[in-house]
Amino acid sequence: MSEKVRVRFAPSPTGPLHIGGLRTALFNYLFAKKNGGDFLLRIEDTDQNRYVEGAEEYIVQALNWCGIPFDEGPGKEGAYGPYRQSERKNLYEAYALELIEKGKAYYAFDSSESLDNHRKDHEAKGKTFIYNWHNRLKLVNSLSLSKEEVQQKLDAGDEYVIRFKSPENEQLLLNDIIRGEIKIDTNILDDKVLFKSDGMPTYHLANIVDDHLMKITHVIRGEEWLPSLALHQLLYDAFAWKAPQFAHLPLIMKPVGKGKLSKRDGEKGGFPVFPLSWNESQGYREAGFFPEAVVNFLALLGWNPGTEQEIFTLEELVQSFSLERVNKSGARFDPEKNKWYNQQWMQLKSDTELAEIFSKDLYERLGERGKNFNTDYVTKVVSLIKERASFVSELWELGNYLFESPSSYDEKAVGKQWKEDTPEIMQAIVGILDGIELFDSASVEAKVKEWISEKELSFGKVMPPLRLVIVGEMKGPHLFDIMELIGKKESIHRIKTAILKLSN
Ligand code: GLU
To answer: Where does this protein chiefly localize (predicted)?
Structure first.
């Protein structure tokens, strides 16, 4: 029987989740669910200097908002907790010592001052200082010192770090599900610190130990971690543990130009790059994006289904997802496409759900007056105008005339449509409307058109000015639908008001 798929999203709580991190979480979720596996959240908070208050709550809330909750993690203890590394800190040292015992790691006593000097010396010669096989015997560590000297230093409580002993002259063959085989010459690797002088593990050690203990089968993470892959593989080998499979996701690139999408790009372009607001930065949620649209858009940022399909529910994404269809090259972030997804999802949402959100907006704008419009009315408005909207917040601009009579008329349109005989025609329309019993769109349309043919008038003489007085400008959906919605009394009232206002 093959082992159960287990993946983890392992953010460091150093701030809000950037859109790239959110996509990493999403791909982990999709892969887990596709394979009937578990999706874990592990908080990598061993670096206390970079810890940011509130970041963990933010991450949890963001995943929940997107509808991609984790199966195990902080607050949802499974069999492999705790899930915050700060709460696991006591277990890492033993693993670092195990590596020393196996001859795969060593104590290093070099002071930060002496290392700085080495760095500066190298820089002055235009070189980079690397601590590894080629110089470690000349530095202060348990490989260069005698056993006794080392023991003395340890007994005296001298500060030390534990470094990995990178092998010399080995050709590593690494494998990445997305990138295929990667060859690395171990001579270029440095002896990374695994355990720090403050008694905390570094990212590399804690990450490997936890992935092993938490039975992670696949590590899916951003491309920025690809340079760490060789060390991680070597660590698995050093412990004689089976390594998980790795998949490094492509970077998310700026809308224009070169480079990685940044917070600044969002600020400059006026689009969110965070799921939820964080300090001054507006999030997708607060900007009125639907979580379904964000998830749908993010899924196609670097992954493709191999078909023309663009709109996916989360369930459909789970069904179609595979790591093999993730691209190697960076995925350009297109804010317009992002909006388009929201527009598409807005059409898929039920009118009642949208009406509920829109009602809040109405009450804010109209105060008590907003309450004159019941849910049924607001729902009808939504169904009439949502087609052209990408956000609920655009509905007011698109349909304010369905809630209040126009306070002014578009001047250009007046100049073009309001002729000398228009008041007379409009007056006649008032008479016709007045006589209609059942004031629905089809009946009103039939009666008005009948009258136009009877009078042998052109539609152009009647319909555009009629729209102008009902809407205030030349926009909007089918005019008779609008009239049905606002009703007979209001339609007549608007025409009469316009006759007074426009016929000086
Ligand atoms: N803590 C790392 C991060 O912040 C995790 C990288 C990984 O997934 O291995 O992204």
So the answer is: cytoplasm
